[in-house]
Write a structure and sequence with these properties.
Helix content is 2%, strand content 70%. With 224 residues, it is an all-beta fold. The strands form 2 sheets. It has a 10-stranded antiparallel beta sheet. Strands 8-9 form a two-stranded antiparallel ribbon.
Length: 224
């Protein structure tokens, strides 16, 4: 919806459902418990976003989103998850060759009856047109990801590998740095290169439990 020459907004609603029930993979269709795979899941989300042209040199974007997930599966059990976020970004044109952006996003997630997890994630960026056809860019920001229901609660086996749940998983957190260069070339060709570095805290990775040999998702304290 365009409200005026300086303000526009949008609202998005989505609902997604998956369901399957595999009883057996044997030729005579006999019912074996190990062959049963059953899952029914719903995910519903609402998102709002607004854009304000504060001036000819300043563009502000803000919004919020909320989602709810529900799953009833043989390998997960009956689980629910709720997540939400609010965010804002301010993009300022300093000159014809220099543009700055600054923003932040606040994320909050709750999985089943576990403790609610949240984090504020800032981000800064700069773009500079060094000369005609050449642009340099750099950015710095924080990231956040809550482990999925599958990573926390999956109990399944396939090909001799067996997984076990780990409800105590912590959320991943990251710090990212990026520097890039873009050059327009003849014959409608563009060269775009980037160097980036990510530092992770509590990275979620599948590991083998030395005690029982089963696969379990665990947090790696630090990773790059």
């Amino acid at each position: 919806q365009t409200h005026s020459g300086k303000f526009a907004s949008s609202v998005r609603l989505s609902t997604y459902r998956t369901a399957f029930d595999t009883r057996s993979d044997t030729s005579d269709f006999s019912l074996r418990p190990a062959d049963m795979v059953q899952s029914t899941a719903w995910q519903t989300a609402v998102e709002y976003q607004g854009t304000v042209a504060a001036s000819s040199a300043q563009l502000i974007t803000f919004g919020a989103d909320v989602s709810y997930a529900w799953v009833d599966a043989r390998i997960y059990g009956h689980r629910t998850g709720t997540s939400g976020a609010v965010y804002a970004q301010d993009e300022i044109t300093i000159s014809n060759s220099l543009r700055l952006s600054a923003g932040a996003r606040f994320d909050v997630t709750t999985i089943d009856t576990l403790e609610t997890d949240m984090q504020v994630n800032p981000r800064l960026g700069v773009t500079w047109q060094a000369y005609e056809g050449a642009t340099l860019r750099g950015s710095y920001g924080w990231g956040f990801r809550s482990p999925s229901i599958a990573e926390r609660f999956a109990t399944a086996g396939a090909g001799g590998l067996i997984t076990k749940p780990n409800p105590g998983l912590k959320s991943e957190r990251s710090t990212s740095y990026e520097f890039g260069f873009k050059q327009q070339l003849p014959w409608r060709t563009t060269l775009d290169a980037a160097v980036f570095w990510n530092d992770y805290e509590n990275l979620v990775e599948p590991t083998i439990d030395p005690v029982d040999g089963r696969i379990v998702f665990r947090n790696i304290t630090a990773a790059r």
